[in-house]
Design brief:
Blueprint (H helix, E strand, L loop, with lengths): L3 E8 L10 E8 L6 H11 L19 E4 L2 E4 L11 E5 L5 E4 L2 E3 H11 L21 H10 L7 H4 L2 H5 L5 H12 L8 H8 L13 H5 L6 H23 L1
Parallel strand pairs: 1-5
Antiparallel strand pairs: 1-2, 3-4, 3-5, 6-7
Helix pairs in contact: 6-9, 7-9
The structure holds iron/sulfur cluster (2 copies) and FE2/S2 (inorganic) cluster (FES).
């Protein structure tokens, strides 16, 4: 017979008048290869239909199931209960707006940050629908695809000390997205123009460089390299400005 797992789950419905944030305890028998996705669905089906949490793909692709698992942000569908102690504590991701229990709204946050970082190709070229697809060097295309693997789960932002302190901080995910456009030869922005977007404490200079973001990223994105790359690039741009003014 498998373990009996104790779950302690954050409960709060901000839409329900008078509801009070609290932790609720459940117990479940562990089955082979049980993930938190399976466990939470069983808890909802068998014990408490009011439990709120998000899932979509069950395969580590949509990013919807991110939550704080025993103190660490991670994907519930990719977390096996056998790798956790017999007492599992679940909280919703901090930083994002709480919808209810373990469900948060990451979409509004990502949209706001992508607008703020102008996450689209900036070019003066006029779009020609009849033109052939532009060729790109294979190595550059691979670099871009590597950074595009972000599933917008929000784990990196939830683990980030700066994002917890200030809600205008762009966070590793949005800065990683800026790096994706910096390496893209189709984007014609200059370093000075990127500086206008991320050269502040809301952007790259707010990053304390302790790299909790990379530690928790479920897709293993090279956030450390990208943050270092942007910090160097924006630092050099600032120095050039200072010397120009002298
Ligand atoms: S390295 Fe920067 S972005 Fe990453 S967690 Fe630390 S402060 Fe946040
Ligand atoms: S960078 Fe990683 S942790 Fe952050 S949102 Fe993207 S996939 Fe999630
Ligand atoms: S349900 Fe899609 S990443 Fe977990």
């Amino acid at each position: 017979m498998g373990r009996q797992i104790k779950f302690e789950i954050f409960r709060y419905n901000p839409q329900k008048k008078g509801d009070i944030p609290r932790m609720q305890t459940y117990s479940l028998d562990e089955t082979p290869n049980m993930t938190l996705f399976i466990a939470l669905n069983r808890l909802r089906e068998e014990q408490d239909p009011s439990l709120v949490f998000d899932f979509c793909c069950r395969a580590g692709i949509c990013g919807a199931c991110a939550m704080v698992i025993n103190g660490r942000p991670g994907l519930a569908c990719q977390t096996k209960t056998k790798d956790q102690p017999g007492h599992i504590i679940l909280h919703p991701l901090p930083v994002y707006k709480l919808i209810g229990d373990l469900s948060v709204d990451t979409g509004v946050w990502f949209r706001t940050m992508y607008e703020k970082t102008e996450s689209w190709i900036h070019t003066r070229k006029v779009f020609d629908p009849t033109a052939e697809e532009e060729r790109m060097d294979n190595a550059i295309a691979e670099d871009i695809y590597e950074l595009e693997r972000c599933i917008e789960c929000g784990c990196c932002v939830s683990a980030c000390g700066t994002a917890r302190l200030r809600d205008d901080f762009m966070g590793a995910a949005a800065l990683n997205r800026v790096a994706r456009f910096v390496v893209d030869p189709r984007d014609e922005r200059t370093d000075r123009e990127y500086y206008e977007v991320i050269g502040s404490d809301e952007g790259i200079f707010g990053c304390m460089g302790l790299l909790a973001c990379e530690d928790v990223c479920p897709k293993g994105l090279p956030l450390q390299n990208q943050l270092g790359f942007l910090r160097r690039k924006m630092g050099i741009t600032a120095l050039k400005d200072i010397f120009k003014k002298k």
